[in-house]
Each structure stands twice: as C-alpha cells, then as structure tokens.
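User: Please predict the structure of the protein below. I'd like the answer in structure-token form so I can feed it into my own downstream comparison script.

Assistant: Understood. Taking the following sequence of 394 residues as input:
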Amino acid sequence: MNEKNIFIVRCGETALKGQNKPYFERMLAERIRKLLKKFHGIQVNRHEGLIFVRADKEIDRKEIIKETGKAFGVASISPAVEVRSDMDDICAAAVEYMKEIMSEKKVATFKVDAKRADKNFPVKSPDIARTVGAAVLKGCKVLKVDVHDPDVYIFVDLRKDVSYIYQQKIRGFGGLPLGTNGKGLVLLSGGIDSPVAAWMMAKRGMMIEAVHFHSYPYTSERAQAKVEELAGILAVYCSRFRMHIINMLPVQEAIVKNCPQEETTILLRRFMMRVAEKVAADAGCGMLITGESLGQVASQTAEALTVTDAAVQMPVMRPLIALDKVDIMDIAKKIDTYDVSIQPYEDCCTVFLPKHPVTKPKLERILRSESRLDAEGLIEAAVNSREVKEIYPL
C-alpha cells in the first residue's frame, strides 16, 4: 500500500474558516504543488480537512518537508505510513514502523496516541491505543510503555478506509495561504526590517510587490544587488513578484537645497510614501507595507509616523510596529535574510542624513517646508523613471 512516501499536511488556521474553508484548502494545496514542482512523481490531494503529499521514494524526505514547510498556511507536516483501516493491519504496520525507528535511534520507551476520525469504526480511540501498544510490546520486546515522558510517540489516525501511523509533527510557519488576502506594496530597503515585514504580511496570505529607492551614484550598484538578493530570498516564500526601482536622488537634492536640515529625513519619507502610493495604484496593490517599528529611529516616533501617514490616502501596514529589534532579527535569521541584510552597503536613507533629525515633527511645519518644492513634479518624475524587475526565488 505504501508505494510512495506519504506526508500529512495540517492546515492550521485555515481550518477555522467555516464555509470558506475549501477555498483556503485549495489555495494551500496549489501553493504546495508549486513549491514541489521541482520534483518528479509528486501528488498533492485534499481529503477530510487534510492535505496529503505523495512522493516517489527516491526523493529525499527531508527535501519534501523543507519545501512543503515554506507554504504559508501549513501548521505541521508528518511523514506517515498508510495502512488499511483494520486493527490487525494497523497493529502489524505499527510494529514494523517501530522497528524502523529503532534501527535509526536508541529507543527504550514509547506511547501510542490514537484518534478515531471515523466514528463508525467499532473500536474506540483509547482501545485502539491499548491494542496497538500491546502489539508493539509483543513485537519489540525490549521496549516499555511510558505514558508521561516516552522516547517516542506513535500516533494512529484512523479514518474510514485508510489509517495513518506517524511519530512526528514538524511545525510549519502557519498563517494563511498565499494569495487569499489581497496584494500590498512593500517599501523594500537593504536593511533587516523591511524584508521581515514583507514576509510577515505574506504569511497572512497577502501577495506582495516591492518598491526600492536608491540614490545612485551616492549608493552603489552593489547596494542594489544586495536588495535584489533579499528579494530573491523573499520570493522563496512569497512566490515570484515585481520590484519597482526608483532613484530618489533628485528629490533628496531638492529637499536639502530648500528645506531645514533637521526635516530632511521626515520629508524624504513622505515623498517615498507618495511615490510608493502611485506605484501601488498602478500595480493593483491595496496598501503599503513598511518595516517601521515604533521608536526604533527618529523617523519612527509616534509623531513622525503620524506625519508620514498624512502624506498618503492608502492604508499603511506596519507588521513590526510593536516588535523589539531582537525579535525582528530572530525572524530575519529564521527566514535567511539576516546575513544578507547586515552586509555593509549604504541605502538612500543614509544619504544626506542630518546630524539632529526632528523626532517630534509638526505637520503644519512639514507642509510649509514642502510648499517650497515642486512636489508633484518631483513625484511624477520619480514614478516615470522607475525600472521594473521580475524577482524569482533564489
């Protein structure tokens, strides 16, 4: 019955979606198919609230688990053995399964945990666990049962026609399937924060596009290559997306020439938001996404964020707003962006950086400074000069 390796994929939060549950499950199954298309002989099917992945046995199990786990919406994955829903068959399969485990690692104690999804099956869950446990004790005489702290758990998931035996529940990222929650435009820099923000919004089911601002020749081509590398890492999780690349140097030069020095950072941030809003509208994105965290730098105080938001009509999502820097760094390490983000290449926000940036800007003062500029002309020129690149998973 086990011509292929079988993996049970649990859908986590998707299971709470009521009448919309089948839609979310379909989207998750399709995302898993895309992630596994690099392998031959893969089957992905939905059944009774679970997703089952079947793969040819020559494919490394760890690779299947690794790729499947990248799909947002996956709560856990279990390599499993499939067996006919018959007590004799289940017991025999459990004994062989335990012998295989014992051949790979030292085991002294075990516990069987059974769940009867088919309520018409004549044996109840506790009795299934006792019967299977007795069979394992008889077949593997060196083992003992430990119901409190066993070396190995054996799980039996009994269903109508077939049952599944497994020992692991390998955690996925959870969240919601990609593509179930609209599309947003992330302001993507080369730092630690914005890639994490993009990843977190994608984890909630949002498709993303990106806009990257640079100040060439003050920022180098290598700095842009760094951002493209970060985008490629994000695409592993977020699927292929477009990145809009815009030179903000003309805007920065106009701000420095005509406005108070201490306001340059907040003014630049407002221009970035207005340019991003136009790009987002063209790209069909419903909101902007930034990596700002409250109080982290001068432009991220409560007052500064309020003034920044006043520049646009589009909603601004800040998934990192209440996270400490250490929390953000931990996520960056988990998703493999951290080592790239800390490479010492400049970004446009560090160009013409004031010595004493304003931390509690007043909107009326900022608007007065902006009135000295041809804001609409600068924004239109920036949008029209953009370069668009397709970002593919690394």
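That's the full token string. The chain has 13 helices and 15 strands.
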